[in-house]
Design brief:
By secondary structure, this protein is of the alpha/beta class. The chain is built from 15 helices and 25 strands. Strand 3, helix 3 and strand 4 form a beta-alpha-beta unit. The longest helix is centred in the N-terminal third of the chain and has 15 residues. It is globular and about 70 Å long. The model has no long low-confidence stretch (mean pLDDT 91).
C-alpha cells in the first residue's frame, strides 16, 4: 500500500499544513498530533469523529487513516434519532472529539478520546491498511429512509485526489481556502485530505463569509472550493466589494460542487472578475466522477468530462446505453472505476441494487452529453426528471432559465400528477420583490422563449425561502410535502 500522505514524512516540516481560523499546524506538528491519535486508535476497527469545523477533526481523521482504521464522521447538527441510527449501524469503538465539545446523548455512550492537536507523539508509523481497506464510512442524507453508510476504501480516496490533481493541475504549491463542513466528502476528502495528499496547505474559514474569502485569496491562497449557496452570496456581494473582486480575479481556480451552480451566478461572477467558476460532479458513493479541467473550457451549466480512470455512460430506463452525444438525449448516469465505494455497511440488499451486473454504479442522476463529451446534469431521477406530454424533461435547465428572470431570486422545479400531461411542471419561486412577484404567464413565456414550449411551467408557487440542507441543496421532497 502506497502512502496516502507522503508529505507527512517526506515533506517540508515547517510548512503550514492546516489553518483553521487563527490556529495552525505545520507538517511536523500534524505528523506528531496525528501520530499520537493513530497510536491510540490502532486496531480499533472503526472510530467515530465528532466532525466540527476545527483542527481536531482533521487531526482525528488523519490519525485514523495513519493507523489503518476507518473513520465515521458525525454531523454535529444531526438529531439524536439519526445519530443513534448511525452509531448502532457503524458500531465504532470510540469517539474522537475536541476537548470541551459537548456531545449529545447517543454519542455520550461511547468511550471518548479528546484530540490534542499539540501532542508530541512519535513519528507516524508506516500507514496501515491495504488499497481495498475502508478509509471512511460516510452516511448518505437518507432522503428515502434511514441514512446508509457508504464504505469508502483507501484506493478511492487516492484515485479521486490524484485524478483531480491531473484535471486541476493541483500541486503542493496550492493553498486552498474553504468553509465547508467536514462530515461530507466535499469538505473532508477534497477540502482537507486533498491538499495534504499534494503536500499543500488548507485554510479553513470555520464559518463561510465573503470577507474571509477575500482576505485569504488576497493573502496568498490560490484555490477556492464552495457550494452554490456560497457562490450566490459572492455574486451578490461583488458589486459593492472591490477587495472581493480582486481576490477572485487573482485566484488560480474557483470550484463549485455538491449541487448545480445556476448559470446566472456563473455569469455574474465572470462579468465582475473575469474568472469563471468550474464545476465537478461527485457523490458520497463515488467521490468524484467528472470535472471541467483547468486547461479546458469552463462552460457554465456543465460538470465537464470524466476524470482519469472513470468510465461513464448514460442509459435508458431499460438499462440500454444511450450512444448519441447530442446534448438532448436524457439518460441516467452510471459510473465504474477505482473511485467507487465498496458497499453500504450492513446492507447487502441495497449494495446489490446499486450496481449493474457489469459493475457500474447506478447514480440516479439524469444527464445529457454534448457532442464533445461534456456532461450536463439535468436532475435526480427520483425528483428532477419530469415526464410531461411524452417528453422527458430535466428540472435543472428550467431552474436556470427561471433564475435569468429579474423577478426571481431563487427557483426550484418539480413535477406533479396531471391527468392530461402525465406530469405538469411546477415552479417554486422566491421572488426578488415579495410585493410584486412574477406571475405564471410571465414566467411561462420567459421559459418557453429560452428552451421550448413544452418545458414551460404550468403552475407557479411563491415561497419566502426554499428548504435547503447543510450543503445548500434544495430539499425537493419537502416542497412536495408542502
Amino acid at each position: 500500500m502506497s502512502s496516502l500522505f507522503p508529505a507527512l514524512t517526506a515533506g517540508p516540516d515547517e510548512k503550514v499544513a492546516l489553518r483553521f481560523g487563527d490556529r495552525s499546524l505545520t507538517y511536523a506538528e500534524l505528523a506528531a498530533a496525528a501520530g499520537a491519535v493513530g497510536e491510540r486508535v490502532r486496531g480499533a476497527g472503526r472510530v467515530a469523529v465528532w466532525a466540527t469545523p476545527a483542527l481536531e477533526t482533521a487531526v482525528a481523521v488523519m490519525g485514523a487513516l495513519l493507523a489503518g482504521v476507518a473513520a465515521v464522521p458525525l454531523n454535529p447538527r444531526s438529531g439524536e434519532k439519526e445519530l443513534g441510527h448511525i452509531l448502532s449501524d457503524s458500531a465504532p469503538a470510540l469517539v474522537l472529539a475536541a476537548p470541551g465539545d459537548e456531545l449529545p446523548g447517543p454519542v455520550r455512550g461511547l468511550e471518548r478520546v479528546d484530540v490534542d492537536v499539540r501532542a508530541a507523539g512519535p513519528a507516524p508509523a508506516p500507514e496501515g491498511g491495504a488499497d481495498g481497506d475502508p478509509a471512511l464510512v460516510v452516511y448518505t442524507s437518507g432522503t428515502t429512509g434511514p441514512p446508509k453508510g457508504a464504505v469508502i476504501p483507501r484506493r478511492a480516496v487516492a484515485s479521486t485526489l490524484d485524478a483531480l490533481a491531473d484535471a486541476w493541475q493541483w500541486t503542493g504549491d496550492d493553498v486552498l481556502v474553504h468553509g465547508l463542513p467536514l462530515f461530507h466528502v466535499h469538505g473532508l476528502v477534497l477540502g482537507v485530505l486533498g491538499p495534504l495528499r499534494r503536500g499543500g496547505s488548507v485554510r479553513h474559514l470555520e464559518r463561510f463569509g465573503t470577507e474571509g474569502v477575500a482576505r485569504e485569496l488576497n493573502g496568498g491562497a490560490t484555490m477556492l472550493f464552495g457550494v452554490p449557496t456560497m457562490y450566490h452570496r459572492i455574486a451578490e456581494a461583488l458589486p459593492g466589494d472591490p477587495e472581493l473582486v480582486k481576490a477572485l480575479a487573482g485566484a488560480r481556480l474557483l470550484v463549485s460542487g455538491s449541487a448545480a451552480l445556476p448559470v446566472h451566478d456563473h455569469e455574474r461572477i465572470a462579468a465582475a472578475t473575469g474568472r469563471r467558476v468550474i464545476e465537478r460532479y461527485g457523490m458520497t458513493e463515488t467521490l468524484m466522477n467528472t470535472s471541467v479541467r483547468a486547461d479546458g473550457e469552463p462552460r457554465a451549466g456543465t460538470v465537464g468530462v470524466p476524470l482519469p480512470g472513470v468510465e461513464l455512460r448514460l442509459v435508458e430506463e431499460d438499462g440500454s446505453p444511450i450512444a448519441s452525444w447530442d446534448g438532448e438525449s436524457v439518460g441516467e448516469i452510471q459510473v465504474r472505476g477505482p473511485n467507487l465505494f465498496t458497499e453500504y455497511l450492513n446492507r447487502p440488499d441495497a449494495t446489490a441494487a446499486a450496481f449493474t451486473e457489469d459493475g457500474f454504479f447506478r447514480t440516479g442522476d439524469m444527464a445529457v452529453r454534448d457532442p464533445d463529451g461534456y456532461v450536463r446534469i439535468v436532475g435526480r431521477k427520483a425528483t428532477d426528471l419530469i415526464k410531461s406530454g411524452g417528453y422527458k424533461i430535466g428540472a435543472g435547465e428550467i431552474e436556470n432559465a427561471l433564475l435569468e428572470h429579474p423577478g426571481v431570486r431563487e427557483a426550484a422545479v418539480t413535477g406533479e400528477p396531471d391527468a392530461d400531461l402525465g406530469e405538469r411542471i411546477v415552479a417554486w419561486i422566491v421572488p426578488a420583490d415579495p410585493h410584486t412577484p412574477p406571475g405564471l404567464d410571465e414566467l411561462a413565456d420567459h421559459v418557453a422563449s429560452r428552451l421550448a414550449p413544452h418545458k414551460r411551467p404550468r403552475v407557479v408557487r411563491h415561497l419566502d425561502a426554499l428548504p435547503r440542507n447543510d450543503m445548500g441543496k434544495i430539499m425537493k421532497r419537502a416542497l412536495g410535502d408542502g
